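Usage example:
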Amino acid sequence: MREPVVVAAVQMNSQADLAENLGRAERLVAEAAARGAQIVVLPENFAFMGGDDDERLRVAEDLDAHEGGRIRSFLAENATKHGLWILAGGLPERSPDPKRVHNTCAVVAPSGEIVARYRKIHMFDVEVGDGQRYRESASCMPGEQPVVVEARGARIGLSICYDLRFPELYRELVSRGAEALIVPAAFTLATGKDHWHVLLRARAIESQCYVIAAAQWGIHPKGRRTYGKSCIVDPWGEVVAQASEGEGVVVATLDPRYLEQVRASLPSLQHQRIGAASRKA
Ligand SMILES: O=C(O)CNC(=O)[C@H](CS)NC(=O)CCC(=O)C(=O)O
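Running the assembly step on the lines above writes:
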């Protein structure tokens, strides 16, 4: 990263109605653009949340198809209209398994093209004590590959929601040069209230990266409740922008000079003695 980059995290309250969700996402992306964002992160499940598995399979898209489906067309139109990057979700992508989708973050360039994608690796198969039983692996096929992309000159490591609990993923992203990490999420209210900020700030501090976390907020179909608190954390671990209740947009600037200053003054990334980064040294 040579120049400062303005980034936005979008907070949504997505439901099971694709058209309605895309309409709201469109307004929120426009708001982010109006506030100067060059890169916009949409939350996990921005296009579809909480419907049944059959419906998710129906809205899932083949992102390599010649013609874009509704989600891909929406992303292409909005990226080109505003001339910005969209790091989109968690969206349902068709997988080789006809009964499951990939939970995929699509990286959409200002040209409208999907230039990279990350498929969520860690599946949320958990009972968190909120009366809900989460079995993500029943409807989602996990990905295998960590992904770092360059957008607007910034190297960005991709992750989704539950991935946040697996620091080894972020170590890998940092060893591939990440300067910012994104965490589109639908964190539950039950876990989010105790873990969300702690984990985001820990990832920012140990990775010495900006962290851009775009979350779902509120009540969704099937009584699912999410925590919200979308935020942007700087590489020192300070929360520099945070969403309030409801849908909205938070904006912050990634500053390459500040990033360099943090990494130079506290060179913990150069002091690693375990794992891939230390082997290189
Ligand atoms: O439930 C829904 O419909 C939406 N949620 C999701 O799509 C995903 C997979 S089920 N949620 C998480 O990964 C939450 C992780 C989390 O909350 C934690 O790690 O504590």
